[in-house]
What does this fold into?
Amino acid sequence: MKPADQSRTSTVTQVNGTLCNGENGQRLKKNDKIAEIAHHFGRIMEVLGLDLDDPSLKDTPARVAKMFVNEAFVGLDETQFPEVSFFDNTYNFDEMVVVNDISLYSYCEHHFVPFFGKVNVAYFPNKKVIGLSKINRIVDFIGRKPQVQEKLTREIAETLSVLLDTEHVAVYVEANHLCVASRGIKDHNSHTKTGSYLGKFKNEWTKKEFVSTFQ
Ligand SMILES: Nc1nc2c(ncn2[C@@H]2O[C@H](COP(=O)(O)OP(=O)(O)OP(=O)(O)O)[C@@H](O)[C@H]2O)c(=O)[nH]1
Ligand SMILES: [Zn+2]
It folds into this structure.
């Protein structure tokens, strides 16, 4: 099941048989998106004074465009949301399930440079239990688009809440932002921590039990 199946999310539009994100007027097929981005990225390189005839640089515009659409920003295309397998909670497990240290790669929407780190997720199962690796896949997918850490944290929590049909979800993200570390203030020691606590996790004791698994 994909969250696009749920009423909560749907910015997807069908264009010429291909599903694209329609929110920003980007009603293009995937290959047209790649061609368009390659054209504009090539222009950026030219404006910067780079030689597009250099054998090492000539394929860079197309390479970057493919990377943006298929990898770095694939999370903008909801049709690529990972397939998720569920299992009936026949054993009636109603304790906290925690997954720690999920790898995260994302992009700052202000500077278009990466931020990356770790995500911790917990939930109380309702009628469904999710395959463990699927939580990592969902975090990876939601990470792969330009955004701020606060929005990312909340989106992971809300998506899991819908998919798992439980209001009891917690997400904690710790990340290093290259826009802070490699430019601007150039502070490579600081990192940013954000949490989203839904349902029972608003209770201080429950939140503490979750936080104690990684701090
Ligand atoms: N709240 C939040 N801010 C972010 C995130 N990623 C980047 N930023 C901040 O977005 C802000 C953009 O500020 P601006 O003043 O417009 O940009 P800037 O002149 O490049 O700012 P400096 O980074 O301070 O050089 C910066 O303070 C960034 O640190 C994020 O995930 N969450
Ligand atoms: Zn930034």
Observations:
- Confidence is low (pLDDT under 50) at residues 4-23.
